[in-house]
Design a protein that fits this description.
It catalyses: ATP + H2O + phospholipidSide 1 = ADP + phosphate + phospholipidSide 2. By secondary structure, the chain is α+β, with helices and mostly antiparallel strands. It is about 45% helix and about 20% strand.
Length: about 1250
Amino acid sequence: MSTGRPLLIPSPRTPNTPQTPSIPTYADLAKRSSGDLKPVSTMESNIAIDNTSSIESNYNSSSRRSISSHQSRMSGTNSVKEVILADLGSKRVRHGSRGTDSEFMSMSQKEINDDDARLVYINDPDRTNEKHKFTGNSIRTSKYSFITFLPRNLFEQFHRVAYIYFLVIAILNQLPQLAVFGRGASIMPLAFVLLVTAIKDACEDWRRHRADRIENNRLAWVFMNGQFQRKKWKDIRVGEIIKIQANDTLPCDMVLLSTSDPTGVAYVQTINLDGESNLKTRYAKQETLSKVPEKEKISGLIKCEKPNRNIYGFQANMEVDGKRLSLGPSNIILRGCELKNTAWALGVVAYAGRETKAMLNNAGAPSKRSSLETRMNLEIIILSLFLFALCTVVSFLAAVWLKRHKDELNIIPFYRKKDYSEPTPDHDDYKYYGWGLEIFFTFLMAVIVFQIMIPISLYISMELVRVGQSYFMIQDTNMYDEATNSSFQCRALNINEDLGQIKYVFSDKTGTLTENKMVFQCASIWGVDYGGGKASSQNDGVGNPVEVDRKILRPKMAVKVHPQLLELAKSGKDSPEGKHVHDFFLALASCNTLVPFLVDTSDPFVKLIDYQGESPDEQALAYAAAAYGFTLIERTSGHIVIDIQGERQRFDVLGLHEFDSDRKRMSVILGFPDKTVKVFVKGADSSMFSVIDRSLEKNVIHATEQHLHAYSSVGLRTLVVGMRELSSSEFEQWHSAFEAASAALMGRAALLRKVASNVENHLCILGASAIEDKLQQGVPEAIESLRMAAIKVWVLTGDKQETAMSIGYSSKLLTSQMTQIIINSSSKQSCKKSLEDGILMSSRLTTQSSFTNNTVGSSGAAVTSLALIIDGTSLVYVLDSELEEQLFKLASKCAVVLCCRVAPLQKAGIVALVKKRTSDLTLAIGDGANDVSMIQMADVGVGITGQEGRQAVMASDFSMGQFRFLVPLLLVHGHWNYQRMAYMILYNFYRNAVFVFVLFWYVLFTCFTLTTAVTEWSSMLYSVIYTSFPTIFVGVLDKDLSRRTLLKFPQLYGAGQRQESYSSKLFWLIMMDTIWQSVAIFFIPLFAYWRSTIDISGLGDLWTIASVVVVNLHLAMDVIRWTWITHAAIWGSILATGICVIIIDALPFLFGYWAIFHIGKTAEFWLCLLIIVVAALVPRFVAKIIYQHFSPCDIRVAREAEKFGNFRELERMEMEMNLMAEPQRR
């Protein structure tokens, strides 16, 4: 699809359209002879209006005042506040306080003084940078440089306490008194892990360096020496004038001076900044439009705020030719934006490099840590205490032995206290430091020998396993969305296993549960409901065609029309009903910030009109107006042209008040061909009925209210439309007030809102519109699966209560069997009473349900399902107060919680409320900027690639295209990831503990001297090479159950919630098994070779090989899904160990030369291996069989059913699956 030129014609009269009525001079509206009346926009960012032109020239001039199309989101949410409040530094954010809005406004209203301002001298970079050397435009996203890489990377890696532990061990081994192993061998494991991590970090940072180099060396047109010349981006300075061509990316934040459009309009795409693909309009000041740098010197001063992260705000003023002009967000284009549908644009650099808003926002989501890894730290502490205990035992026994043999120490051959190497009568002690120091050194040497009790390879293994798991999640075609051409993405690799333990899901509604593709369904006009299923699709499916310049234009989107309403729309204003319909659809076509663009079709004479805007609601209403014959075909900065039933009419846009979250409405002031001026307003019903004159047409107002309730009850999004005619005095009063407000340097936003509120009153109601936001495919089934998995789903939405409840029913979130507890309170006291009543009701219903179950005799019957519905006003009094505890107490007893009319920070507050009071894991999912704070607050954040940009995706841990993909993500991949990672961690503890205990038993038979039979290299390679690879591959590839089974029986997800695969009980059982296996590995060869001539090195090789064989066969016994990779890893590991032992013993300069060849040729060697395997593993095998037979878990039952294909048995046992145990509160 190619997008052509915008339907924006700068001249006041449309070419080749003589039928378009011209606009009168409006001399009768203004009593003064000269004025400053101009078409204006009253959004917060708009600019002061000059006083140089008369009313007549103003209306007929081609240089019209700009009308910003910075989006009005009709959903009632405001991402601007969220961004600002999220960046308040250390100031505590109150999720439930109304004071945050005013606090934000007070910050934005501060007057810019010289101390807090940046002074930018236009076209004079030397003077600009004279007092303060501003940063250059070179950017750097890389973390390291060639010099800082080694120290900084090591510093970051040693944030892991385990690495510090191994470093201390390696340092101790360098001391002569404690040198148990060779100095190189002791450093090798830590060096290997550090090297692998450093290589990974270096590769990632090299890619960043390469991207930075490409970005910094791009070229831009910069005005130098009287002409525009090419200059590298990194050399651009603040104060320079740059020229941007169409489709170019902006290299910096620049204040717009002029554009190729005579009215100063520029269209930009901000997809690189905030992810939104719709075009936005930016404007140059009228005073700078005609200035050409090549022909005349441009000079002036811009006083702007210091660099900040707020991409939606900009406060500044500009002094040009003796005039002081206000600047706002509509006058600045940010770095990363692309210029579209505009030939060129000139601007002055205000912020460069790392001070641009894009770079200041270049921070990832908050770092999150896996709950499994957090729990793992407790076991590591226990192992450390275990290690300390072993070392203490050895040092104590060594002290006892030294005391008992103190008289024999001089002559004991293997100890020899005295040094007999010199022929002197008085021999000195040979490396003997006294009884106390000998004990102390024994303790330290024991720490060195038993160091692998803490598995150093565990951390690197976990990272590699997570990378492998993420690869398979990304490659899962079942989570690929064809509609958005988006696949699943892992943006955080350290919390994969948390996906298998989620208990709470917090979901946005619009765009997450629904498609956020608005479709006009019906309308209530002047008290008459045009809907109720009577609409039918038009035959052509694209709306009424419009002819422009011998080309047929059709609206891009088809809209269903109501036959009777269509006839009234075509009848014109002849009848009262027709007049009301005319005004209603005229309001829908004009009261918006949409820009019509032409889209090519296969027929060169037929074009499609594509309405570009940031609000799907506005687009739906504009397409609906076009379907009924009111087609917006042209918008300039000062007027619009609407084709009304084949007749093109032009209206001057005299003012436009943007939507904001305080007023919750927007308005447009139009100049009509009959010299009248009217204001059209649309907005939420909660704000519109307060400004409608209820003394007029009470019956119409009452009927409209009933229709609104009916629309909301079936899940439709509603807006109320009103209008009134302005007298000349009212218009003049409004215009003067607007000028004063827009020229103010302090409190401009509040003043502009006040001006808008003054004109948006005493309205006459026209009607209400109803838009449908359809559910995404598979949402009801997904919610039902999550509920069956004992996952509580909370929906947090900004929509009104009736709409949210209707969506709740259609999505199966709410059911008719549920008892609803609704809390709509307007004060803290009433909110407290409602919560207390709700808790009492829930307790009573739970008691009654339990009594009924006991009477009937049913086992394990669920209690009565409760649904809590609470609005944002009530949450204002609950969050950040003592009522939080009561809300959580009530909500924890409910199966469903539905929060309506909530603000973005309230969403985050609700997530925080749950996190603070339970150890259960939370997941938040959303698609818009208003969901970012919620996503970052939850343990796991999921972003939906939808219609509201990519802010949620960029702040999330995982991203996907549809809500329904949450089911395979949690129930399948989450389950697999948790089971694999939990097993891998426990297995790492087990395999290292086995080897440590073998070494410990040997110490007991060597007079506690800490000599070791195992070579130093085998001891170090054991956990790094010999046994690490099998567990990594099993952690990535093993599957305890198939996808089909996990999706068919969501109850199986409860294994992760109950933490069945990783618990303290399992840890201690594994440690007991470890002790037994180490006994079998050590003592069987010891007794077999007790009186043989095999030396200790040969026994050490046997113990090493036996340990590797046993732990790998232990792993093989637990593997569920065998693949050729798993076979290669396990059996290859055993083979690799044998080869390594042979190589080590074949080196003559190492201890134990040729030992493996001596012991390997004996029959006892192979017999011992067989007996060790049987003795070590048979008890575990028997215990496992008995446990699985007499006390099988749900997963084991499902696995047996899979194995034998007996799913009927599984379905019969489904109702007997374990109830989900409620985890204890923190």
